[in-house]
Amino acid sequence: MYCQNCGSEIDQNAMVCPYCGQVNSSSDIIRKKDIKIEEMEQKIAKLEEIVKEGSRSTTKKAGIKIFQPWIFIFPIVFLILFFTLFIILVTIR
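The structure assignment produced for this chain is given below.
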């Protein structure tokens, strides 16, 4: 990167040009971007924690402890209806 004032080649992260003493405005921009990136990473980490906590609570609620009778009743009713219709169709012929 080059100094905007004197044109000398300087380090991109340098705050001040070592040759002319001009303040490097791009280093301020880079620092601001770094700060914003760190803030975003912290927000993402917080959101990930919230999602993990939410998934833990939903798995506890949706556990096997809750008895759902329709899981057993539905296949039995289906089989009864199937064989009833089968018997009716066989007797009609």
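Interim note for the steering committee: The chain has a mean pLDDT of 80. The chain has one domain: 25-92.
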